[in-house]
Amino acid sequence: MDSPQKNNKILVSACLAGINCTFRGTNNLKDNIKKMADSKQALAICPEVSGGLGVGRENIELVGGDGNDVLDGRARAITSGGRDVTENVIAGAKKVLDAAKKAGIKKAVLKSNSPTCGSGSIYDGTFSKRLRPGDGVLAALLKRSGISVMTEDEY
After folding, report:
1. What is the pTM of this model?
2. Which pLDDT band, with edges at 50, 70 and 90, does 6 fall under?
């Protein structure tokens, strides 16, 4: 039997903690998540910003599959303007995973439907606001590494 966790800190999407890091330059504030981040119970990170994409960027969707397919080289992360940002998205997800491992984090609450953070559903790659089953790149990477992932709606 595993010993009790000494570290109950969780990973959260920075936008949910009220940090203006979405592609629009806004946030997706959830008060309970902001309170956890403010009290250092949560580590708030944006994988897209961590991958060098900045704030106020073009919208991104996964084309050809979901986050697992991106990680395995079968799909790409493409902006609404047609730019391939797959390497940025993967690099950002790896940086977030590294930070989570260093902090001993075992659970994440991530932004639903996002191409990086979405868990269970993401936009379909057509920029038509339609959802399809699948995980974002960070969500897929965290799950592969044994970190439990849920959306803000499930938390």
Report:
1. 0.94
2. low
